[in-house]
Amino acid sequence: MAISCEAFPTRKRRASGGSFSNLLHSLLQVTDEICSLTNTANFLLNRTSSSTIRKTQLLGVVFEDLIRLSNSNSLLLPYSLILCLEEMYIVLHKIKTLIEDCSNGRSKFNLLVQIETVADTFHRLTGELSTLLDVFPLQELHLNDDVRELVILLRKHCSESIPFVQAEQINLRNDVVSVLDRIKHEIVPDQAHLSLIFDKLEIRDASTCRAEIESLEEEIINRSEEQSKTDLVALIGLVRFAKCVLFGASTPSPRAAVMRRNQSSELAVPADYRCPISLELMRDPVVVATGQTYDRASIKLWMDSGHNTCPKTGQTLSHTDLIPNRVLRNIIATWCREQRIPIEAEAVIGKLNGGVTNKAALEATRMTVTFLVNKLKDNSNKPFVEDTNGVVYELRVLAKTDSDSRACIAEAGAIPLLVRFLSLDVGAENPSLQVNAVTTILNLSILEANKTRIMETNGALNGVAEVLLSGATWEAKANAAATVFSLSGVAAFRKRLGRKTRVVSGLVDLARSGPEGAKRDALAAILNLASDRETVGRLVEGRVVEMTTEVMAVMPEEGVTILEAVVKRGGLVAVAAAYAGIKRLGAVLREGSERARESAAATLVTMCRKGGSEIVAELAAVPGVERVIWELMAVGSVRGRRKAATLLRILRRWAAGLDAGESEGFSTITMVTSTSVAQ
Fold this sequence. Notes:
Blueprint: E1 12-14, H1 19-35, H2 46-71, E2 76-78, H3 79-101, H4 108-113, H5 115-134, H6 145-159, H7 167-184, H8 191-200, H9 206-222, H10 226-247, H11 254-266, E3 285-287, E4 293-295, H12 296-304, E5 323-324, H13 326-339, H14 344-354, H15 359-378, H16 386-401, H17 403-411, H18 414-419, H19 424-429, H20 431-444, H21 448-456, H22 460-470, H23 474-487, H24 491-499, H25 501-513, H26 516-529, H27 533-541, H28 544-551, H29 556-569, H30 571-578, H31 582-591, H32 594-611, H33 613-620, H34 625-635, H35 638-655, H36 666-678
Antiparallel strand pairs: 1-2, 3-4, 3-5
Helix pairs in contact: 1-2, 1-3, 2-6, 3-5, 5-6, 7-15, 9-10, 9-14, 10-15, 15-16, 15-17, 16-17, 16-20, 20-23, 22-23, 22-25, 23-25, 23-26, 24-27, 25-26, 25-28, 26-29, 28-29, 29-30, 29-32, 30-36, 31-32, 32-33, 32-35, 34-35
């Protein structure tokens, strides 16, 4: 027998003051939040988003009437109403997120390219609202007549909604795609056509171009698909090109310059976030066979230079695999965001360009570089014109982005042009130009092929040395030191740099008297130079040992690491020079970090073995030294415990009157030192 639907009436329950009321207030709150986005929607989707916001505003009236009914305690709730409202809350949240995503903070170019997809998403969400309004139990609720008519009107509007994109926007999108395709085929875009596109997108000056580039970089970070990331890189290349061609080269704002200085020289980077080789913030930390962590670029440079040992421990690497330290990278990335240091976008863009290069992006970069270098040639006789500084600054920014940009800039012949701006005259007249020039050379030197180009460019090495010694600002000197560090990654260039007395003197002076960030750059360069035996002799003559003894008072870890390298390869003269620092090494052994104590113990072992009983006697005179060595043997690192045990054995042999070292004794050292000074 057939059973009618009326035999099972809809189950209802009386409205309670708890969860249902909270649901209604949550719905009303999210509709208010959506309505508050009225003036933030991107102009490209203004009509679509405004229509969706108006529908949401009308829904708010319905929710207000439901709240009125629930407060009267006379509302009987169909279960379908609760389910309908819960689903509606989810849809409204999606709409809010979509409108926020399309707000004025989003890239206009990327929104234009995806405008049909975004319009379809708006339409899909409107369709979901239409479905929920169809099952909304209007007949079972005692809403007032105006609200009932409003629900019926909303049903009609939502059901009749269609995706809408203006023909003008479709044409504009096609123009952008066409420009990118022409760039891909090495056809330079027409300037008037490019200007019209940017004007329609309301990008009308250099500052809005920079904002657009930043938005595109932010979206690269948030994307997971590699193909969409490479498309965004192409858009960045287009905007960079247009920025230079349409609005001219520009220098950073004073606020941006202050932020950059804070991020580089004045900001104290936690020791665990710094690479043991470069002493700089690690961008891509990796673990080597010994378990030590280094920045990928630095340890790769070390290995490519022919080393097969761990720089920190000296142990032979059983394999050359570099394992990403993702946990540390995430921690560093979080810290960088808190300090407002841009790290992620650069790393992502660099990684993309290190793989499959987007042809349009590469050609856009090449066109931008050609334009800037030609501009620099035109201003060759006007080094103090502000436009020249702007061009060099644009090259500096471009050279920081990726390997393709660095290659393009060098191939275009920019290096000889940049060298001219390293002189004392330029530093005196336009300090910012000198800083931008030396920093551009530094960024270019990251690419291995460019190291050779820089070293072979007439006057480049002398120019860097001049900035290092007499640069107009600490930033210029620090970046000159960083350039020396980068170039010294190649063994042959390390020898050439070490032979330059002005380079060594400049590094030593900067390490002694510069601010903390500049000191670190100088010490990193010195440490690199100290890995070559021939160069170590030059460093000792340049009083590097005395400098490291001084630096140990404020930066013990960096100072003792360099001293360890110098006494290891510098022979008796280096040991003699380090004699006066034994008490300082004892203090580091007692109070330093784990890494510093390990290096101090290794340094003392080398000095005792090479210097003989006089060195051991000086060490034994340090108050409480045996107790400190015992502590290191108990709680130090593996290498630290091993070196401490050796040091204790040397002290015990000396106390017993046995031979303490492997040299002829301190008198021999003194004689060698005296001879060296006499020469």
